Every structure is written in structure tokens, then in C-alpha cells.
Amino acid sequence: MEEAAPALERLLQPAPHEPLGHPDAGLEAAVGEEAEGAQDEEGPGDRTMTENNFWLKKIEISVSEAEKRTGRNAMNMQETYTAYLVETRSVEHNDGPSVLTDSLWRRYSEFELLRNYLLVYYPHIVVPPLPEKRAEFIWHKLSADNMDPDFVERRRIGLENFLLRVASHPILCRDRIFYLFLTQEGNWKEIVNETGFQLKADSRLKALNATFRVKNPDKRFTELKHYSDELQSVISHLLRVRARVADRLYGVYKVHGNYGRVFSEWSAIEKEMGDGLQSAGHHMDVYASSIDDILEDEEHYADQLKEYLFYAEALRAVCRKHELMQYDLEMAAQDLASKKQQCEELSTGTVRTFSLKGMTTKLFGQETPEQREARIKVLEEQISEGEQQLKSKNLEGREFVKNAWADIERFKEQKNRDLKEALISYAVMQISMCKKGIQVWTNAKECFSKM
Predict the structure, then answer these.
(1) Which range, of 5-9, 161-165, 248-252, averages the lowest pLDDT?
(2) For every residue of 399-451, which 3-state class applies, written as one string?
(3) What is the C-alpha to C-alpha distance for residues 46 and 377, in angstroms, rounded to an integer?
(4) What confidence tens digit (pLDDT) does each residue in 299-357 have?
(5) Which of 20, 238, 313, 447 is 20 to 30 Å from 193 at the Cα level?
(6) pTM score, whole prediction
(7) For the chain, how far is it from start to end, CA to CA, in angstroms?
(8) Are the beta carbons of 108 and 156 closer than 8 angstroms?
């Protein structure tokens, strides 16, 4: 254990000269040289896989178990919560075994804090979503209690998937706060708060204002926003349909238990037919009890769909950030145009539009030449600053669009691959379920034939 710890440090330790919470801080320096060498060896077609999954080839991350605990919250009130064990393993070379090197407990709220930080510092990235905090789209047998063992287990799997998504992302995996989340248990939350990410978060009111007041929205982001709304709507309907089908299936399967009871009671009064009826009843009982495991498996497929239900909100977050940047750009351009007009009016002595300053001048007399020159000089300085600011915002906006669209394309490939796999697996499971039903009735038929 002690010998393995330095190896993990070398693999995970971020570059010391990078400022805490800097978007490019973290693991890049630690694995960059080895990753570059790996890319040189790979062909062009393997470049994306190498870049995205290189870190996961060095480190194994898992959320291995969940534990119910009782403690005090910020209001000093007793509460019951679930803690999750996050384990990190270094992968040995030469096909050697993995060695456990670090483990710590995290609450769901700490996962939320990590994701909120990533959303602020990486606004151009479609940040992976967390699993649901409380059960949604449930069928009647499933508990809505967030302390239910089955729900906690599914959420544990979802939290592990979240960490793996972040670790496989070519940019997010390099963040130092993510590294500390995996390795530092004590004062991790204090370190996150010291980054001041809350102060950089955009308010909802400001985002709403930008949505309605931006004059020249980017058509691509507008279409993406509409797509995310439609994706969320479609998956919501699909999950509701699945929940209704699950309710009906549960009822149909459990009713088969009545066949088993009736056949067993009937066998007791029959001599020649008794064995056949008893065997058929047994097959019906097995069929009725199998629905619990079937629908439990279905929940895992539903969770895969829910992940992309929540991904739709992550897409909208990128669109909102672009709207805010576009709104700020338009406001800066409008302010610059206003100052240029004021400067022109002062230089020529003509007022083209109504203004409070113009009315004041008419009421109290003209300014002296010295006063006018001083105001012109101030405006010229403000115009120069405004032009630089507008240029900077333009460059920032173009860089945001470039980076955001690259990550959106990456997300689209991931989405198509994951949803295709999930839907195929779901169809295969349904086919298997139907085959088992046919087999049960085939066995029952043989029992009846032998009577």
C-alpha cells in the first residue's frame, strides 16, 4: 500500500505552477508527455480514443459501495444521509494486477459541488450530469424513497458513471479540483470554495434577461437549444411509457401466480391428472416470480435514458452561456456607438437625438470651450477603452463558439453511440423475456400432454 501511493501521486499530481481551479490546471503536465508518445504510436483513426481515454488507462475509478449515515447539517440539525466510497487504483504495467491506492467517502452534495464548479469554469463544455437525487418516472412497485436500498444502488452506479465520464473527457480530466476530489478527503470543500467559482456563476435573472433581449442570436445555438428541449421531451415520454408498460407487465406476471395456486388446488382432487397439474402450477409460479428481476434490469436501461434526459439541461447551459456572451457583446457595441455619437455631437455642436444633456444645455446655457474639450477628451479615452473591450469580447466569443462546438460534436458522437447501444440491449432483453414466457407455456403444455 505504501509503495503504491507514490505511483498514484505521479499519475494524478497536477502541475504545481498552475493556479488552483484554472481551466487547464491539473493532470495535463502529469500525463502529457506519455500521452504524446502514445499518440505518436497510434494511427490517425485511434487519436480520439487515445486522447479521451488515456487517463483511464492509467487510473481505475469506482464508487464501490454506499453507506447510510447520521450526522449534523449546517443548521446543527440531525439528518440521515448516504455516503459513497470512491476508490482510485493505479493500473500496473505489463498486465500486472491493479493495486488499491486511495479511497474516501463522499456525499451526494459533494458530487453536486464538483459539478457546479465544472459548470462555472468550463462553460463551453457539455458537463456530464449527475444521477437523479430522487426517483422519477417510477412504476408502482418501485419506492420513491431516496433511502431505498435499490434506489441507492442505482444512484451509486450513476455516480460512478459520472466520475468515469469526467475522467474520460479530454479537458475535464485535467482539472486540479477533480484530482483533489478523488484524493483529498479533509478540506476539499474549503479548497473548492476558495476558488470563488460561486462569484463567477451567472445569475438566473441575468440569463433570462439575455435570452429575451439578445438581438442577433447564433442560429446554430438556437437550433441546439430547441433540439435539447425536444430531446428532453421525447425521452420523458419514453420513460413514462416504459413505466406504464412496467405496471401492466407486473400485473400480468403476478396474475400467473393465480394459475399456479389453482392448478395446485386442482391437483389435490385429481389422481391421474394430479402430477401434470402440480408441475404446470410450478412453472406458473416460477414465471410469476421472475418479473421482479426483469423489471429491476429494466430500471438500469431506464437510468441510461435518464442520463441523456439530464444531458439535455447540460446542452441548454452551454446555449445560455453563449446567449449571455452575445448579450454582453451587443451591450458593449451599443455603449460604444452611443459614446461615439456623443463625441461627434460635442465636436460638431449639433444634437441629432433627444437627450437630457441637450435639454440641460438649452436651459442653462452652452458649455465653455474648455469644458467641451475636456468632455471630448474623456469620451475619446472611453471610446478607445470600449473598442479594446469590444475587440476582446469578439475574440472571446469566437473562441467560445469554436471550443463549444468542438465539444458538442464530441457529445453528439457519444450520445449516438450510447443510446444506440442502450436501445439495442433493451430490445434484446425484451426478446429474451418473451422467449422465457414462451418456454414456460411450452413446459406447461408438455405437462398437460402427459396427463
Answers:
(1) 5-9
(2) HHHHHHHHHHHHHHHHHHHHHHHHHHHHHHHHHHHHHHHHHHHHHHHHHHHCC
(3) 59
(4) 888 888 999 999 999 999 999 998 888 888 888 888 888 888 888 877 776 655 545 55
(5) 313
(6) 0.78
(7) 66
(8) no
